[in-house]
Amino acid sequence: MSKIKLGKNTSKKDVIIKKSSALFKTKGFNAASMRELADAVGVEAPSLYNHIGSKSELLQTICFKVANEFTTQLTETENKKCSITDKIELIIRFHITMMLDKFDEVFVANHEWKHLQEPFLSNFLNQRRNYEKRLVAIIEEGIAKKELKNINPYVAVLTLLSAVRGLEFWQRHKKNISIKVLEDDMVTHLLKGITML
Amino acid sequence: MSKIKLGKNTSKKDVIIKKSSALFKTKGFNAASMRELADAVGVEAPSLYNHIGSKSELLQTICFKVANEFTTQLTETENKKCSITDKIELIIRFHITMMLDKFDEVFVANHEWKHLQEPFLSNFLNQRRNYEKRLVAIIEEGIAKKELKNINPYVAVLTLLSAVRGLEFWQRHKKNISIKVLEDDMVTHLLKGITML
DNA sequence: TACAAAAACTAATATGCGTTAGTTTTGTTA
DNA sequence: TAACAAAACTAACGCATATTAGTTTTTGTA
């Protein structure tokens, strides 16, 4: 068998990861069984192990793929020559895009990371803590430059991250509101508030 | 044995519910075992069943207790004679208080509700949907009265709810920031934004 | 002290889980 | 077509789970 996959450009392993993302999101990591996953893939459960090492490994793959995407994008934004306000807007918009484009994976990374085994659990948490610290630094710079109000930067980061994360509840209203309105209104809300003055 | 509990005013059932809240929060509903819960209570697993009906029942109790508290408070706020902005501030502050005072229970209601069995699952989701609709109505009234910017009310509710919910990540910075600063800065952020102008 | 209810215990059951072992089928290349 | 590897299959193992049954201990009251 050739080492280079022909035909469709996705390996069976990719299919398994994709299906497991959806399953872990819907039922939670522990409640999702390998037999269910096998059903979704269209195979018997033991056959999965021809492609993956373990159930845990699936979770690791999903969580770190997401974490790395966020980290990479943050580095790019940090290096941009623009105002702090613009940087924050870029970050908000990237989070929204990720939530909408890779919903299952981001959801799993947000909710099921606690079922990672060591040392992956510690790695993941460190990576997330680091991400937050870099966001705090950006907010602090904005305050120092008088671009932003003198609020606590940790509170601001918490509020920003939590708000965009809440997009996981979005699907319900999908039909009524365009993604553009969603993004624009959320950016406005988080930067300028909702009150008139 | 008397029917009225003497001494401490909490029954063993209350202890079990409290301990299960903490356990479900830490490990998740499925990963938390009745043996662990029994350990935490200081008893063998089967003894729990002298006080409770089932593991599922524990989750139901936790979720609906929280849901009812939020619903009750919202009704009170709706009936208040004050500006829309003040109502929103009241709601934000109540959510923050709940997150800080009943962290375990609120966390479980937010994260583990999906493991509720029918018909409790549907009931819970209906109750939550109804809560959101009432919040949207408040925002809409604020927009109509020109108190609030003309943003999409669903997006605003999503942003507000998600932001306060994010307080579940709070414990990390607890030492550095007082609850007052936290509340005030978050209210400012969500009402007036973070940019200077 | 004797009774009765509450609540603890031990033992066991049925079920579902992730995973392994061993075998057969499938598909590609020589 | 023969050979070989990839990937499917069936069967089964060992373990952990929630829960039940049956019994004993504890506890409060008459």
**End-to-end distance of chain A:** 68 Å
Return the structural class of chain A: mainly alpha
Q: Tell me the number of strands of chain A.
A: 0
- The CATH superfamily of chain A is Tetracycline Repressor, domain 2
**SSE topology string of chain A:** HHHHHHHH
Fraction in beta strands of chain A: under 5%
Question: Helicity range of the residues of chain A?
Answer: 55-70%
Mean pLDDT of chain A comes to 90
Assembly context of the chains: homodimer
pLDDT < 50 stretches of chain A: 1-7
- Most extensive chain contact? A-B, 49 and 49 residues
Total domain count of chain A: 1
Q: What is the CATH C level class of chain A, in words?
A: Mainly Alpha
The CATH architecture term of chain A is Orthogonal Bundle
Give the radius of gyration of chain A. 20 Å
Sum up the overall morphology of chain A in one term. elongated
Largest sheet of chain A: none
- How is the CATH topology of chain A named? Tetracycline Repressor, domain 2
- Per DSSP, the total helix count of chain A is 8
Please provide a written account of the structure.
Two copies of one chain form a homodimer. Chain A has a single domain (55-194), classed as Tetracycline Repressor, domain 2, CATH 1.10.357.10. Chain A has 197 residues and is an all-alpha fold. Chain A is 65% helix and 0% strand. The first copy, chain A, has helices at residues 12-27, 34-41, 55-79, 84-101, 103-111, 120-144, 153-165, 179-192. Chain A is elongated, with a radius of gyration of 20 Å. The termini of chain A are far apart. In chain A, α1 (12-27) crosses α3, α1 packs across α5 (103-111) and α4 (84-101) runs antiparallel to α6 (120-144). Chain A binds a DNA duplex (30 and 30 nucleotides) through loops.
